[in-house]
Amino acid sequence: MHLLTLTTQVLRDPDAVAGSGDDHALARLAPPLLVLAVGGAAVLGLAVGASAGPLQSVYAAVKLPALFLVPPLVVLPLVHTFAEACGVSVPWSRLGIATLAGLARSGLLAAAAAPVLWLPFSLDAEYHLAVLAFVATFGLVALPALATLSRAVPTGGRLRWVAVLGTLAMLGLVTAQTGWLLRPFVARPAGVVAFLRPVESDIFSAIGATTRSATGDYDDDWQPRGSGLNRTVRE
Predict the structure, then answer these.
(1) How far apart are CA 112 and CA 110, in angstroms?
(2) Is residue 121 part of a domain?
(3) Residue 110 lies in a domain
(4) Which of 42, 87, 124, 171 is 20 to 30 Å from 152 by CA-CA measure?
């Protein structure tokens, strides 16, 4: 299938792409779907990192595609096993192509959102507001991928809804924490641009601290303890 034709189909009817989930279709569609997902995520990464300079743009353009791809690789075996335990049989080929179709659609939406984020970032938006804007944007563009995957779970079975909710919960949690570990967004104004930052706390406490800081409450502003990868010692 031509890449432009596939792009149109992914945007208009991703379920039709996901529905062609046999081994032959997976082998044929996986490469172009990956191109759409990775390319779109990289464009958003370039826009997000632009405010901190070219190096941060390159880092973010590498980390955002990783944020798209790592959580499904970790979670899909669990999703398949959990669905089977709920009495819902999901073929691996169907699960794989539905995931790729959802990621491709989210990647295209991420590329479309890139100029929207780039404008305030280029105008030196306040750091904490910029982080919250990125988190909100990523959450919105990720929703179509979750929706496409949930609709790929076959109908039937009394516990289908449990399988769907479990799928969404596992992917949501792993994606959120992976995003916190990679942190593919703007660097702190006084921070050193680094590919990976020190690991501290978790995504939920970090968002809470960032939200408080964005409203002017800096008493409990999160700061790394200076341990882990790329440790930075400041005078």
Answers:
(1) 5
(2) yes
(3) yes
(4) 42
187 φ, ψ to 5°? -80, 155
- CB-based burial, 173-203: b 16+ in 10 Å, e otherwise: ebbbebbbebbbbbbeeeeebbeebeeeeeb
What torsion, rounded to 10 degrees, do the Cα atoms 220, 224, 226, 231 define? -150
Average the pLDDT over each of 25-34, 71-80, 185-194, 219-228 and give the range with the smallest value.
219-228
What is the domain count for the chain?
1
pLDDT of 61 > 60? The answer is: yes
In a domain, 104, yes or no: yes
144 closest CA partner among 40, 3, 28, 25: 40
Closest CA to 137 of 176, 110, 107, 175: 110
Residue 192 lies in a domain: yes
Q: Please give the distance of CA 199 from its chain centroid, rounded to a whole number.
A: 19
Closest CA to 61 of 11, 127, 114: 114
Q: Among all chains, which residue has been given the structure tokens 């790592």?
A: 70
Tokens 């990464």 locate to 45
CA quadruple 184, 102, 176, 118: dihedral, nearest 10: 30
**For position 37, what pLDDT does the model report?**
95
* Domain ranges, residue 144: 3-214
